[in-house]
Amino acid sequence: MGNRLSKIYTRTGDTGTTGLGDGTRVAKDSLRVEAMGDVDELNSVIGLLLIESVSDKIRTCLTDIQHDLFNIGGEICIPGYEMVKAERVTALENILDEFNDTLIPLKEFILPGGSRAAAYCHLARTVCRRAERRMHTLNSHEKITEVSLQYINRLSDLLFVLCRILNKDASVPDVLWNNTYGK
């Protein structure tokens, strides 16, 4: 692959613009750059989660997701480019169903927390929701792929289920919302 990043600074962004993958320059606070940043932040939070002790199955799942998120970032960075295939959405749905089938049904809302790994996963879930909102805003102005929008939506659902799995694996109960608190 050669030295793709041999020089880290270029000074080309000093005036408030950044280069996209197709060579065009856009404002650093453009919707496209904001969406790329949120997807990158999500990937970083998942990296933080991966420093925790998690099962091999969850580790593999999250590592695959990190690669997919890098691909989604690439799609956003290069307008009109498609990298993520519908099969990746199906894969998320399958693993989500598989994990969810091992959990008891929820009767209450849960609060973020429980084990440290679950708390990190809740953080990833909320960043994922923000990335999804930002991607939809971008899509209303400049089209991005439907598959990426579907993927990010399924991912937030999977992360919610993984929060519960991580608590279960750690023998820590989910934190149930007390709807009478403060009354």
In angstroms, what separates the terminal alpha carbons? 62 Å
Question: What's the helical proportion of residues?
Answer: 55-70%
CA radius of gyration is: 18 Å
Task: Sketch the topology as an H/E string, one letter per element.
Answer: EEHHHEHHE
Number of strands: 4
Strand order of the largest sheet: 1-2
Number of helical regions: 5
Taken from the alpha-carbon principal axes, the silhouette is elongated
Largest sheet: 2 strands, antiparallel
Which structural class best describes the helix and strand composition? mainly alpha
Give a brief outline of the structure.
With 183 residues, the chain is mostly helical. 58% of the residues lie in helices and 5% in strands.
